[in-house]
Specification:
The protein has two domains: 113 residues, Rossmann fold (3-Layer(aba) Sandwich), CATH 3.40.50; 94 residues, Arc Repressor Mutant, subunit A. Helix content is 34%, strand content 26%.
Length: 219
């Protein structure tokens, strides 16, 4: 099994454990290319150790890059800092229990091979294919730019919840800025392309919320 191993420490704690388990780990570090990491193995193991915060944005970048199976590894004192809404598929504790780590990785591999439709998210009449990075509406496909798809995928993951413009800038584009017009422009383009099939509501004073309903009205 090929594992893309991402860690803030050098060498990664999991490196020798994975080798002993018969896996083929390829080490990466947070500054590496998320697309290369996402394509570099049957699963991605993101090793946070004692601080989950530096890896938070990387998780979203990995998902946008097409990583289908992500295992998050954290120390026991950091578990409560992990938001279950972050884009990872399973979680394991550090220091590792080798048989458990191996089993969790094999489960992720099995899910990826046997249940590819888990990446096809239905929101009303719209289907967002997170693996193929495509959007389908009744009778047609919708062409989105990479930035538009990244925004829609994020809103899809948090559908039904209001998300601030600042959070979207940080987690979709990976920037911290007081200029939020970028978000507004991309939301407007998404509304034009998606029409009434999926509604992006404006939540005044907060940001945006993806909803699926029949009337197509925006707040």
């Amino acid at each position: 099994m090929r594992i893309a191993l991402v860690s803030a420490s050098r060498p990664a704690e999991a490196l020798e454990v994975l080798r002993d388990l018969g896996c083929r780990p390829v080490e990466h570090f947070p500054s590496d290319d998320p697309v290369e990491i996402a394509r570099g193995g049957d699963a991605v193991l993101v090793e946070c150790g004692g601080d989950v915060d530096p890896m938070r944005t990387l998780l979203f970048k990995l998902r946008r890059a097409g990583a289908a199976s992500v295992l998050l590894a954290v120390s026991s004192d950091q578990v409560l800092r992990v938001d279950p809404g972050w884009p990872f598929d399973d979680l394991t504790l550090q220091p590792y229990v080798p048989p458990e780590l191996y089993l969790r990785l094999r489960v992720l591999e099995w899910r990826r091979r046997e249940a590819p439709n888990d990446l096809r998210v239905h929101v009303g009449a719209m289907v967002v294919d997170l693996g193929a990075r495509g959007v389908e509406l009744p009778g047609r496909s919708v062409a989105l730019s990479p930035q538009e798809f990244a925004l829609l995928a994020f809103l899809t993951r948090f559908r039904g919840r209001a998300v601030s413009r600042e959070v979207l800038l940080r987690d979709v584009w990976g920037v911290r800025s007081v200029e939020t017009r970028t978000v507004d422009v991309h939301v407007r383009k998404l509304r034009e392309k998606l029409g009434d099939h999926a509604v992006i509501d404006t939540v005044r004073g907060v940001g945006y919320r993806l909803a699926a309903r029949s009337d197509g009205a925006n707040e």
